[in-house]
């Protein structure tokens, strides 16, 4: 995905305002969240199924739901500042 | 005990409520009051059609059988939602900028608007969704059965009748609200609102049952957890393959299910809603799945051995005497089923009517095709309604044929695997520009075929569509083609086996064929539009401010509007923005104004595309390009017309220029004539005056001198007279006052006389005459004296001007029926081309050389010949000066 | 031996008339009747006065005079120009070419004589 900011035609400043910078890092975070989620939810693949070392279902349940809640919370936190702003500088953030 | 009738009454009330909700929403939307319909939460709730009756009932059943495996069905979509920035955002943007109406439309649009692909996806979707609809019918029927059993044990319900009524009711609702408007963007506010309500109902129902189970039966959270651990599901027993595979499958299905695409992309009102849904929908799914395992565990404990775990949601409350809760739960399941069926029917009917019925109709009914828009509209509506009814009927058919025996979740997963076949093509389409139509077709067909063979057909059970022998030993005994052990890989879970082979071979074929094939221009264009959608589009209609460069706009506007108009416009706009003296800010308003101004000059589509280029955020769709092409065609036609006109003009201009040159030459000649006539008059006068003074003043001149001078005076006086005669002659001829003295006579005689007269004056050099006296023997009826005058002029001109050493004048005569042509050709250097068209004008003289004439001779000749009904022209291309006289044999 | 006059004129009758008038007054009159080589003739004979017609075959009087004025000033070579075209434009052209006297045909014999005399005296 091309998320580079677009200022006019083919030129953009090398350094951007603090606000814009923050926004871009949030976009990075938004991209990382599902990867982290996938990783965490893949952990059960490693759990042993041998009777003597099996993970109790209640603990599995708590783990899966815990990750779930965390993901929802992070997604919520990220989504808030990513709301579109009318200022031109932020246009790329929403559009690109 | 709730009676069945009461239950039906509740159902009808509920359905009536949905009708009211949908109706109110539709009316609000129609009146433009859409604000409350556009809450992000409505969007989020509408996504809940993912949670169908299958998940409502089946999840508990699945949990009762396989423990935590049921969670994967929710985890996959949760990851997709949380990762909205990756895929969904792009899909939604593409859907908006390309006006996508369905997933089939997306795929077809991406691959060069290929209808074949659309048909493939549609068929795949219909085949994949039909069992799913059957599943919904089955689950509702099942839930009725539960109540019937409870109310009246032993009495069995007629399954098929329930399912049929249900199918008919759903068809009615869908037809009424799903085909109300035929908007380009295919949004159905009423339906969306109704399914949002249903989302709330089913969530509340399941959570109510869950709360009842955990706190009412299980004795609190801790106790319930202990019960879980103590139960047969107490340990993590999920197969790793299924855990990962189902998570992937559910994520894929979430993106590819036609109904999900409908609510996620097509019904999306605002990209920004996705932002809210990114966390709110995972939360919804989490809540939906929160109590599933407790209900399953408690159900297993409470219900007798062999009870269907798929109905625990109903049977557990019923067994505890919580009838109201059971009814609520029933409504939840009912909602899940109806909302899914409604949206799926809308999505599929859109696909079927747009990609199958309409193309066929347009082909079958040519001539009256797309030109009559109202008619088409009617046909589309009808096609949609028929499709909805057809799809629901198919679902019902599947249900009654399959007998509704198989466990719910199995049908669901088979269906998921089917629609997931679209995933490689879809993702390839939006992320990889190299994906081609042929590749997509090949990949889809491969995936579809493998799915049919390994998953769909065997799902009917041995003996239905596929004999048990094939399942056990492979077709024709080819063991490596066994549906559940392709290529000899045995022991895999059949679902995973089907998923693995279908998706991987699908992807492989898709990529390989794409690489090997070459896309058409439209495909490449669409590919670029899709993959780089964020560079080509903006979120909202209109231009995004700030990115455009005022200078660039100014330059472009100047080119199109002209410098003055463009500057006036920019100055006006700048003043309007309170920025007098500077360039205006490229605000959206200004850009729109500018676009309108430009559109007046170059057409709307071109203007849009041009501004788009500069602003850099244009959604240039294929329609835009088509419009540009149209305009260009019009402009080309116009300009070719202009070209023809301008050619005409330039011809006229050329003629004018010629005429002007001629006039200029004539004017110069006129000046020259005044000088000339002055010269011609003064020169003889000078001699006359000088010699008469000499004669007067000089005494004693010798008599021979006196005689000489007197004769000079005499000659010059005659010269003057002749000049004045010529002038008068010409004047008379020009004014048409001449009286022709018509007589019959021989041309030879006329020429004879003319030659005699012309050579009589031997002061003018010698010229040899060549004549053809035989040819000259023609009798003419004309003014012989005037004609003679012409010949004298031509002969003496030749004598005067022919510059050859041995001057020769040849007079050729040809006679036709009633005309005679005389050519007078000498052997001199002739007359220069630039002089040829003025020699017949008055007072023109070819050279300054002293020739004795005033330049009136040829002018007089032309006047005479014209009077005689003929014409005289210079005859170019001869060796010397040549004149052609064409005369009628007789004047009328 | 009187002063020499060179007359460049193409009308034989006018040549005859002017020659008669001037030679009777004691001038030696040379004549030449075309414009082509007029300049060379003038340079070769170096007359005291040049009488120049305007409309000459080959080269006009103005052209001849302009060329002569390249090397000979009005003092070195007084020129009387005769023209049968009596327009004011012709007078201007003549003056621009560096003529000493300008006279329109037909002229009175006495005028020509007076003009030639005045050119030599000056």
From TrEMBL, chain A:
The keyword Transmembrane applies. The chain crosses the membrane at residues 29-48, 60-82. It comes from the Bacteria. Keywords: Membrane, Transmembrane, Transmembrane helix. This is Uncharacterized protein. It comes from Pseudoprimorskyibacter insulae.
TrEMBL record, chain B:
It comes from Pseudoprimorskyibacter insulae. The keyword Coiled coil applies. It catalyses: ATP + protein L-histidine = ADP + protein N-phospho-L-histidine. Residues 676-891 form the Histidine kinase domain. Its EC number is 2.7.13.3. Keywords: Coiled coil, Kinase, Membrane, Phosphoprotein, Transferase, Transmembrane, Transmembrane helix, Two-component regulatory system. Its main location: membrane. It is a multi-pass membrane protein. Belongs to the sodium:solute symporter (SSF) (TC 2.A.21) family. GO terms for molecular function: phosphorelay sensor kinase activity; transmembrane transporter activity. It is found in: Membrane. This is histidine kinase. The chain crosses the membrane at residues 6-25, 37-59, 71-88, 116-137, 157-179, 191-215, 243-266, 278-300, 382-399, 411-432, 438-458, 470-489, 495-516. The keyword Cell division does not apply. Residues 628-676 form a coiled coil. Signal peptide: none annotated. One of its GO terms (cellular component) is membrane.
UniProtKB/TrEMBL annotation, chain C:
One of its GO terms (biological process) is phosphorelay signal transduction system. It comes from the Bacteria. The modification 4-aspartylphosphate is found at residue 53. Keywords: DNA-binding, Phosphoprotein, Transcription, Transcription regulation, Two-component regulatory system. InterPro entries: Bact_response_regulator, CheY-like_superfamily, Sig_transdc_resp-reg_receiver. GO terms for molecular function: DNA binding. The keyword Methyltransferase does not apply. Pfam families: Response_reg. Residues 4-120 form the Response regulatory domain. This is Transcriptional regulatory protein WalR.
């Amino acid at each position: 995905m091309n998320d580079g900011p677009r200022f006019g035609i083919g030129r953009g400043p090398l350094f951007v305002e603090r606000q814009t910078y923050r926004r871009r890092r949030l976009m990075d975070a938004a991209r990382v969240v599902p990867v982290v989620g996938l990783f965490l939810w893949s952990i059960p693949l490693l759990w042993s199924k041998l009777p003597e070392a099996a993970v109790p279902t209640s603990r599995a349940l708590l783990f899966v739901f815990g990750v779930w809640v965390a993901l929802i919370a992070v997604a919520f936190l990220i989504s808030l500042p990513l709301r579109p702003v009318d200022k031109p500088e932020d246009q790329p953030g929403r559009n690109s | 005990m709730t009676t069945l009738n009461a239950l039906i009454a509740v159902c009808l009330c509920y359905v009536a409520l949905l009708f009211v909700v949908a109706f109110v929403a539709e009316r609000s939307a129609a009146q433009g009051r859409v604000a409350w319909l556009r809450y992000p939460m409505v969007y989020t709730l509408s996504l809940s059609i993912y949670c169908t009756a299958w998940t409502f009932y089946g999840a508990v059943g699945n949990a009762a059988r396989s423990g935590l495996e049921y969670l994967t069905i929710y985890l996959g979509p949760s990851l997709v939602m949380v990762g909205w920035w990756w895929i969904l955002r792009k899909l939604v943007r593409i859907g908006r900028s390309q006006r996508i109406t369905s997933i089939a439309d997306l795929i077809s649009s991406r691959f060069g608007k290929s209808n074949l692909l659309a048909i493939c996806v549609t068929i795949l979707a219909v085949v994949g969704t039909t069992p799913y609809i059957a599943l919904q019918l089955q689950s509702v029927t099942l839930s009725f059965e539960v109540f019937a059993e409870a109310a009246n044990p032993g009495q069995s319900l007629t399954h098929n009748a329930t399912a049929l009524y249900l199918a008919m009711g759903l068809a009615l609702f869908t037809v009424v609200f799903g085909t109300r408007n035929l908007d380009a963007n295919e949004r159905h506010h009423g339906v969306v609102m109704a399914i949002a309500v249903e989302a709330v109902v089913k969530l509340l129902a399941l959570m109510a049952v869950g709360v009842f189970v955990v706190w009412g039966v299980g004795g609190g959270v801790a106790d319930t957890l202990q019960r879980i651990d103590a139960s047969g599901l107490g340990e993590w027993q999920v197969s790793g393959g299924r855990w990962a595979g189902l998570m992937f499958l559910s994520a894929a299905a979430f993106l590819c299910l036609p109904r999900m695409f409908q609510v996620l992309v097509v019904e999306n009102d605002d990209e920004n809603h996705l932002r809210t849904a990114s966390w709110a929908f995972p939360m919804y799914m989490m809540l939906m799945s929160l109590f599933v395992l407790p209900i399953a565990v408690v159900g297993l404990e409470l219900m007798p051995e062999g009870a269907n775990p798929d109905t625990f949601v109903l049977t557990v409350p019923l067994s505890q005497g919580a009838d109201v809760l059971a009814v609520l739960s029933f409504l939840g399941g009912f909602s899940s089923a109806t909302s899914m069926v409604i949206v799926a029917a809308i999505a599929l009917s859109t696909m079927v009517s747009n990609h199958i019925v309409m193309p066929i109709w347009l082909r079958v009914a040519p001539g009256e095709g797309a030109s009559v828009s109202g008619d088409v509209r009617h046909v589309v509506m009808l096609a949609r309604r028929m499709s909805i009814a057809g799809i629901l009927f198919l679902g019902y058919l599947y249900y009654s044929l399959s007998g509704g025996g198989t466990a719910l979740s199995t049908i669901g997963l088979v269906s998921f695997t089917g629609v997931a076949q679209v995933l490689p093509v879809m993702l390839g389409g939006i992320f990889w520009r190299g994906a081609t139509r042929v590749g997509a077709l090949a990949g889809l067909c491969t995936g579809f075929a493998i799915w049919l063979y390994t998953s769909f057909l065997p799902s009917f059970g041995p003996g239905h569509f596929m004999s048990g022998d094939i399942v056990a030993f492979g077709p024709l005994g080819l063991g490596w083609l066994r549906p559940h052990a392709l290529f000899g890989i045995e022991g895999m879970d059949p679902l995973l086996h089907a998923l693995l082979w279908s998706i991987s071979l699908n992807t492989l074929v898709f990529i390989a064929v794409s690489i090997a094939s070459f896309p058409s221009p439209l495909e490449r264009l669409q590919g670029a539009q899709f993959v780089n959608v964020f560079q080509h589009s903006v979120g909202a209609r209109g231009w995004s401010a700030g990115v455009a460069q005022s200078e660039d706009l100014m330059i472009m506007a100047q080119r199109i509007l002209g410098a003055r108009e463009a500057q006036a416009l920019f100055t006006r706009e700048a003043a309007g923005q309170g920025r007098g003296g500077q360039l205006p800010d490229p605000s959206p308003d200004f850009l729109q104004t500018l676009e309108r101004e430009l559109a007046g000059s170059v057409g709307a589509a071109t203007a849009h595309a041009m501004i788009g280029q500069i602003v850099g955020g244009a959604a240039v769709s294929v329609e835009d390009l088509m419009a540009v092409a149209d305009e260009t065609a019009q402009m080309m036609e116009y300009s070719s017309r202009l070209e023809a006109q301008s050619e005409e003009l330039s011809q006229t201009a050329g003629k004018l220029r010629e005429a002007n040159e001629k006039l200029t030459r004539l004017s110069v000649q006129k000046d020259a004539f005044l000088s000339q006539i002055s010269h011609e008059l003064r020169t003889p006068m000078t001699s006359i005056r000088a010699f008469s003074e000499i004669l007067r003043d000089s005494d004693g001149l010798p008599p021979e001198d006196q005689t000489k001078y007197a004769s000079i005076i005499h000659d010059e006086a005659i010269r003057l007279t002749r000049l004045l005669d010529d002038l008068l002659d010409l004047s008379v001829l020009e004014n048409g006052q001449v009286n022709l003295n018509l007589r019959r006579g021989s041309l030879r005689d006329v020429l004879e006389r003319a030659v005699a007269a012309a050579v009589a004056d031997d002061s003018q050099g010698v010229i040899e005459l060549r004549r053809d006296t035989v040819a000259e023997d023609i009798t003419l009826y004309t003014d012989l004296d005037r004609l003679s005058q012409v010949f004298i002029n031509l002969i003496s001109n030749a004598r005067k001007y022919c510059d050859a050493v041995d001057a020769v004048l040849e007079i050729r005569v040809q006679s036709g029926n009633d005309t005679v042509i005389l050519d007078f050709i000498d052997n001199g250097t002739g007359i220069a081309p630039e002089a040829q068209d003025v020699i017949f004008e008055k007072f023109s003289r070819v050279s300054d050389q002293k020739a004795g004439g005033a330049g009136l001779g040829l002018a007089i000749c032309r006047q005479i010949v014209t009077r005689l009904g003929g014409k005289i022209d210079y005859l170019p291309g001869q060796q010397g000066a040549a004149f052609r006289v064409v005369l009628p044999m007789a004047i009328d | 031996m009187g002063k020499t006059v060179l007359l460049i004129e193409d009308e034989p009758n006018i040549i005859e008339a002017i020659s008669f008038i001037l030679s009777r007054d004691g001038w030696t009159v040379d004549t030449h009747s075309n414009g082509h080589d007029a300049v060379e003739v003038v340079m070769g004979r170096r007359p005291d006065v040049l009488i120049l017609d305007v409309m000459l075959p080959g080269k006009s009087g103005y052209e001849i005079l302009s060329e002569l004025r390249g090397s000979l000033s009005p003092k070195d070579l007084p020129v009387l120009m005769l023209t049968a075209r009596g327009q004011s434009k012709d007078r201007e052209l003549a003056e621009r070419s560096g003529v000493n006297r300008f006279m329109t045909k037909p002229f009175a014999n006495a005028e020509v004589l007076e003009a030639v005399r005045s050119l030599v005296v000056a």
